[in-house]
Amino acid sequence: MPLHAAVLTLAWPVLGEQILGFGVGLFDTWLSGRISSGATAAVGLAAYVAWLATMLFGVVSVGATAIVARHWGAGETARANAVANRVLGLGLIAGGLYYALIWPLAPYFAAGLRLEGETFDIAVRYLRIDGLGQVITAMSLAGFAALRGAGDMTTPLILGAGMNLLNAAASWAFVYGVEAIGLPACGANGIVYGTVAARTFGGLALLATLASGSTRLRLLAAELLPDRATTARVLKIGLPAAVDGAIRWAGHFVFLALIAGLPLTAAAGVGSAADDDGETTFAAHIVAVRLEAITYLPSVAWGAAAATIVGQSLGAKRLRRAKAVGHVAAGQCAALGALISALFLLAAEPLVGFMHLDPAVRAEAAPALRALALCQIPLTGSIVYVTALRGAGETRVPLLLTLAGMYGLRLPLAWVGGVWLGWGLPGAYLGMFGDVAFRATAGGIWYRVGGWWRKEV
């Protein structure tokens, strides 16, 4: 079909999946906001570490999409299906390695953000329990990535919908308890109990769906054990993407640590008791970036559509179509970014008011959300172009862009704006703007002239 229509057709199911996932994350933050600012800080840290897990699992999922799409576009459906099965096994291995690491490292993550007392305990328990669910998540992400490489965006949407709705319902039940079935109230710990239950359900549902033969790819037990050739191909593409994610996450963690040490602005009341350990500033940041995640929804969706079309077009030897799709997807997504920017500028107070009960957190988060409005259009470009490049198997250049943007711009500018100039949380977001603006511009230029279409997968 025409390229604009093809991008929209492939993007909307991913957008639906992203909206549901965003709703769950937003719901978890909303639930924690009914408990305490400490619970919000703990859940926010867990969300960042879960994001690290997702990026590390990109070592499998990025390679899965690129390789399956290339075979599917070339009409080699049997080879595409074999790769899809083997990446499921690789996903389980990646998830197990993550769980083995997060158990001993959880206290260090919490201490690195200066969490103390009950907040520290909640965060450590959350990370360790969540790590168990990430084992299944790694396999699910690999399976979803393979399905998208085959052009099937609807199955991940349906399975993700069930998983995310169950997550919200189960988290509510565990937090507040259900007397009728004898389930006790678990407080902040209940949020992660619901998450692990939903992820387990989602992984089992994915395997059942693939085994049923109702999708473009099919589960074959004999093909689940990874072989050397497939593992080498996946690692060749996915390892730079995972390193990119780890480096970007490490920069974000330093960024978070900087934010956790910022004083409250005058609007929130400098010197308030809540500011003793930066807990209010950090909670305000978590509220603001949870809302900013609205922009990630279309960005990831349009990026996934572009990656699928790029990979399939290269497999089918349709070079002109592969070169054009990234620009089409970035343009469509930038229009949505402009609408989200306007929403943040015009409705900051009611948005943060809905998210948290603490007046100090609200007062700190509202100006921060307005500052984030400046980042939304370049943010869409930085995600779409990089994801499109990965669809061709080009993962090394995005890694270099991350290094330059994160460590050359985001962190230095965040210190200048937040600490040196004393502008607090909105000032720290100067670094965020510099980073995403650079990566959007440089990524767009490389997509036009970089020669990525000659990449072998």
Automatic annotation (TrEMBL):
It comes from the Bacteria. The chain crosses the membrane at residues 40-67, 87-111, 131-150, 157-178, 190-211, 253-274, 294-316, 328-348, 400-423. GO terms for cellular component: plasma membrane. One of its GO terms (molecular function) is xenobiotic transmembrane transporter activity. The keyword Coiled coil does not apply. Keywords: Antiport, Cell membrane, Ion transport, Membrane, Transmembrane, Transmembrane helix, Transport. It is a multi-pass membrane protein. InterPro entries: MATE_fam, MATE_MdtK, MdtK-like. It is found in: Cell membrane. GO terms for biological process: monoatomic ion transport. PANTHER family: FMN_FAD EXPORTER YEEO-RELATED, MULTIDRUG RESISTANCE PROTEIN NORM-RELATED. This is Multidrug-efflux transporter. The gene is norM.
